[in-house]
Write a structure and sequence with these properties.
By secondary structure, the chain is α/β, with parallel strands linked by helices. The protein has a single domain (about 1-250), classed as Glycerol-3-phosphate (1)-acyltransferase (3-Layer(aba) Sandwich). The protein has helices spanning about 1-5, 10-35, 40-60, 85-90, 110-115, 125-135, 135-140, 170-175, 195-200, 205-215, 235-250; strands at about 60-65, 75-80, 95-100, 120, 145-150, 180-185, 220-225. A seven-stranded mixed sheet has the order 1-7-6-2-5-3-4, sandwiched between helices. Strand 3 (about 95-100), helix 5 and strand 4 (about 120) form a beta-alpha-beta unit. Helix 2 packs antiparallel against helix 3 and helix 2 crosses helix 10. It starts with a helix and ends in a 15-residue tail after the last helix. About 40% of the residues are buried. Residues about 255-260 have low confidence and may be disordered.
């Protein structure tokens, strides 16, 4: 929170730009997309999200870059650090996300997620996991990538948590390619750390966390895409292979520390 008081004008200016971008984006979604009957179309929503994700990152002072080829079919699995992960990944390409159900109720961010075609998952309900997984087919076969965070929660970046394999069942059953991705954030050491100032985890509260981010001089988001994995019909084995792929990207591109083992949970 101290950054907010050291740089109040920076925070106010970036917050104003963030609100202006999203006012424009929500108006476009409610206007042109609805008039054309595309407000619920995953492909159209993914185009909208791609455009405004990049605009939002610029508004709050984030830079982003990617390494590797952004997939255009199948699924993506990524580690999970923050509510900003969706914006960072969406800024690199067109995709639809699966997010925890609580996000739908968040002020503004919930509206943005809905407009982006996000599928909201009640992970504690096994029947709902199967229902969401069943919704993948028309999206993927329609040409839009589905992105999931199989750790099931965010972390501070010190490790890649074990993957839950349940949402990978459709990919295993249908032979869809699944691309591993690793994302991270770089912040000037004089301004904080990834774990304490950028990642959103433990018992953090959204408003002070977000305002503190706006006070930072510059944060760089980086996404690394690996090679797609396909042809594995067992979801648990697929989860293990993808977990290993994300860990390999992390190791190759500068991630510190060890990943959690064995890379799989039972859900």
């Amino acid at each position: 929170m101290s950054g907010i008081f050291r740089h109040p004008l920076r925070v106010a200016w970036r917050l104003a730009k963030f609100l202006a971008v999203n006012t424009r984006g929500l108006a476009e979604h409610a206007g042109s997309l609805r008039r054309r009957g595309l407000a619920a179309d995953p492909a159209a929503c993914s185009v909208w999200l791609h455009k405004y994700a990049a605009a939002n990152l610029a508004a709050i002072g984030f830079r982003f870059d990617q390494t590797g080829e952004v997939p255009t079919r199948g699924m993506i699995v990524s580690n999970h650090l923050s509510y900003l992960d969706i914006a960072v990944l969406a800024a690199t390409g067109r995709m639809v996300f699966v997010s925890k159900a609580e996000v739908e109720r968040w002020p503004l961010l919930g509206s943005l997620a809905r407009c982006g075609g996000t599928l909201f998952l009640k992970r504690e309900q096994r029947s709902h996991v199967a229902e969401i997984a069943g919704a993948f087919r028309p999206i993927i076969e329609g040409g839009t990538v589905v992105t999931i965070f199989p750790e099931g929660t965010s972390s501070g970046g010190g490790e890649v948590l074990p993957f839950k394999p349940s949402l990978l069942e459709p990919a295993a059953s249908n032979g869809w390619p699944v691309t591993p991705a690793w994302l991270t954030y770089e912040i000037d050491p004089d301004e904080g750390t990834l774990s304490d100032d950028v990642a959103y985890w433990r018992d953090m509260t959204f408003a002070p966390h977000f305002l503190n981010l706006l006070a930072k001089r510059s944060i760089r988001a980086r996404v690394f895409y690996g090679d797609p994995v396909a042809g594995i019909s067992d979801r648990k084995e697929l989860a293990r292979r993808l977990h290993a792929g994300v860990c390999a990207l992390r190791s190759r591109h500068g991630g510190a520390g060890r990943s959690a083992a064995p890379g799989l949970t039972n859900l």
